Amino acid sequence: MSIASQILTKKVMILEDKLIIENALSLIVGSIMHKHELLQTLYDFKTEQMPSFEEFVLTGLLYTPQEKVREEFKQSLACLSLYLAASSEVRERPMNYLLRLLSNKFTIVSEYQCKQYFELFCDLIGQYFRQKSLGALSDEEVFNPETLLS
Question: How many domains does the chain fold into?
Fold first, then answer.
């Protein structure tokens, strides 16, 4: 993640940079899928370049001008949220974490290319309401629909 965060802060990315990010994200997702307690490490991630995991997600999904990188972030985050349920070692489900983060940043999306951001957000909302209808989620409010509508 440290290498990926360094690459994300570069002004210009070359093909090898994009491949490094793609492989780093695959490794991160695969590791977390294999050992769920690593998700907490992901949530706690920070470096000099990225002060928080939230910043890492937003940089890769929204701020970077590289469409391939944004697409890789979207797919990796969707994979994590779809296949990883909450476990005792995890603060919160990736789906809830990402829905909260993305819904809180709606005010800034118009400043960036946001196709992948919206696609991920729509996927997460669909997952959320499917799981909610099955009774798999608590009554905790992850996002406020009225705020989003405004």
Answer: 1
